[in-house]
Amino acid sequence: MKITGAKMVTESLKEEGVDVVFGYPGGAIMNVYDEIYKQSFFQHILTRHEQAAIHAAEGYAKSTGRVGVAIVTSGPGFTNAVTGLADAYMDSVPLVVISGQVPTTIIGTDGFQEIDAVGISRPCTKHNYLVKDIKDLPRVIKEAFHIANTGRPGPVHIDIPKDVTAEVADFKYPKEVNLPTYKPTVNYNKRQLKKAMDAIAKSKKPLFYVGGGAILSNCAYEIRKLAEMTNIPVVETLMARGVMGENHDLLIGMLGMHGEFAANMAAHDTDCLISLGARFDDRVTGRLDEFAKKAKVVHIDIDPTSIAKLVHTNYPIVGDLKVTVEGMIESGKKMEFNDYRNWVSLLKDYKEKEPLRYNDSDSFIKPQWVIQKVGETLGSKAIITTDVGQHQMWTAQFYPFSFPRQWNTSGGLGTMGYGLPAAMGVARGNKDKVSINFTGDGSILMNIQELMTCVEFDLPVINIVLNNNYLGMVRQWQTLFYENRISQTDLSMQPDFKMLAEAFGGIGYRVTTKAEFEAALKDAIEKKKPAMIDVVVARDEIVLPMVPNGHALNEMTLIGDSNE
Amino acid sequence: MNNFNHYYDTQITRQVISVIVINEHNVLSRIVGLFSARGYNIDSLTVAPISGSEYSRMTIVTTGDKRIIDQIVKQLNKLIPVLKVNEHQNVIEKETVLIKFPIDQPISDIDVLARAYNGHIQNVTDDAIVISATDAPSRIANFTNIMSKFKPLEVVKSGVVAMER
What GO biological process terms does the UniProt entry carry, in alphabetical order (chain B) (predicted)? Predict the structure, then answer.
């Protein structure tokens, strides 16, 4: 039975069990869209911008653990998608992105809506394909899903010329992937793990440093078990929020540029740093040559390039984190560990002396209060997405995360405009949870058009705009490091967000008092409709504590009385 | 105890790396793109298909400290079409140079020197003589230097090919 390349695409997605695709049609991809029209096994969600299609697929993938799928057209359709691809690449999100391309006969002639898509996507994807022969199409799609979701996950881009989607050929979706050059290491080296475990057991101040890999490999609960078994304290990176759960006794907190004092001091004082799926990002380490410099380093990662990329590693272990942590639990059962109670209580003293806090006010709303309020109201009933900036850091600091995949943010690339579309993907993939997007008045305008998508496809995202009429994080840096020269970050001129939400057919609120906010939040949750709550917050609040750029983790600017 | 500083201050070394890749569209740009994106050096690069297979061999000469070389090898290994990466320690390296001289230069001197470097005259026309030499890269560099006094019209060097002893 011969079918067209376009039908091969939809049939392959069916074979992969895809139930939702985010996308935007155009000339070069029309044959595929014609097949999407004829099929009924997956839903297509039409976003209003290609960047949003990718972010929505990311939100879906990050919150469900499944591969996100997006389809765009050639030329500008594809270039709009590049930011999303780069974002997914930096945060290791499993995606398959299919783009149309001009016919093979036109490639290289600067045709209408032609761009060298694989040339552009090469540095921001895990792998990419230009399919010139219809016979390769089923194999390529099979490989793309396999590559996206194995090893260190990442986005895979498939570029398909229009004539390839129009041609016909026999279709048989392969059962197996045969890639002799791609075999990620899953199983750790047992001898190496034994050596690492012995070093941990002998150390006096060991510390688990947990990163986003813990979420990607679904081993949050194993890590909790390992920490409890050994009584070793844990610090989380931004991407790992929710691994331990906010109330866990051994969680010291988030470390890094805006991490807690206790967590940063733990990293500074530890004599054995055990990295579980983290990658020593500059926003975590601060000044690198001062980072954990008293420590022996155990680094467990599925991606060998992450190991010893930035810091010297005494015990490198390559393998799937879940498998490795299970191995650590097994071998730990038969071992004697040092008594770490004094070390844990020292860190708890730090936590008590210098907790995360802010100076609340009754005359105006503090952004941190808003986040805490939502946390009290919804807790584990919500999945939280953010945009990028001050509100993102406050959310990471003050929301009580209790399970993995509850936290959805653009960490590596730091993409403003990520929040709203990603929250749509969350809403589509998690109908039993409330999808909350904390955003800023700068970020929200970057993909505001997606309110239309939310309304059309009934995706009840609640956008909470922490509106300080500033590009807050850049303004914070200007205040601290540029002698308060506020260059191009004053957003005094902003639209009426309430009316804007209503213009798209959503529900809009503007609140200036705590009572108004509580009422608006309650109303939005009850109505289960796309909503935007414009919260007028204290303008000059800054994110603290902070490790200034180029400083070590023990040289923090703390939460003093300056934070009024 | 650790001292990370010491980890960054290792000596800059020259390293020959061979990479076995699937011979497919786009593979060279993946490799070269990796080097440029991460700021690694390419001193020379040669590629040729491995006969009777779907693979090609690339020989890359690069420079960097231990950490950079380690990263280069790991990052290359991470690319999907890469089958194998070898960091060569003990290799035979060869490079070829072609040099064209005006015909009025002393041909016998040129010929004698070329022979000293495993080379010989390849072609003579009414107005030019072309010689070639194949030898270790350092010797070829030396040879090219010496021959500059015969006012060469053109010098073309290949990249390095290498094989473990």
Answer: isoleucine biosynthetic process; L-valine biosynthetic process
Instruction: Compare CB distances from A130 to B21, B25, B74 and report the shortest one's residue.
Output: B25
Q: How many CB pairs under 8 A join A and B?
A: 59
Residue A526, SS3 per DSSP: helix
- A500 to A48, A385, A438, A449, A491: CA distances (angstroms): 16, 21, 17, 10, 17
Residue of A416, A424, A446, A473 marked catalytic = A473
- B26, B71, B81: residue with CB nearest A118: B26
In chain B, residues with a C-beta closer than 8 Å to the C-beta of A142 are none
Residue A210 counted as domain residue: yes
Yes or no: say if A54 and A70 are a contact pair by the CB < 8 Å rule: yes
Domain count, chain A: 3
* Contacts for A499 with CB less than 8 Å, ≥ 6 apart: A508
Of the partner residues B1, B26, B82, the one whose CB lies closest to the CB of residue A181: B82
The question of whether A112 is a catalytic residue gets the answer yes
Give the residue from B50, B72, B89 where a domain finishes. Answer: B89
Q: What CATH number is associated with residue A479?
A: 3.40.50.970
Distance CA A398, CA A551 (A): 24
Q: Can you give the residue range of the structural domain that contains B23? A: 3-89
Looking at chain B, the number of H-run helices and the number of E-run strands are 5, 9
pLDDT band at B1 (very low <50, low <70, confident <90, very high): very low
Tokens of A360: 């609340």
Give B38→chain A minimum CA distance, Å: 10
Q: Give the model confidence (pLDDT) of A116-164 as tens digits.
A: 999 999 999 999 999 999 999 999 999 999 999 999 999 999 999 999 9
Contact between B2 and A297 using a beta-carbon 8 Å cutoff: yes
Interchain pair B80, A118: CB under 8 A: no
Domain that holds residue A427: 367-544
Taking an 8 Å cut-off on Cβ atoms, the answer to whether B2 and A312 are in contact is: yes
Residue in chain A lying closest to B85 (CA): A181
Q: How far apart are CA A560 and CA B33, in angstroms?
A: 47
In this structure, are residues A508 and A500 in contact, taking their beta carbons and an 8 Å threshold? yes
**B56 and B17 in a common domain:** yes
- Residues A266 and A310: beta-carbon distance below 8 Å: no
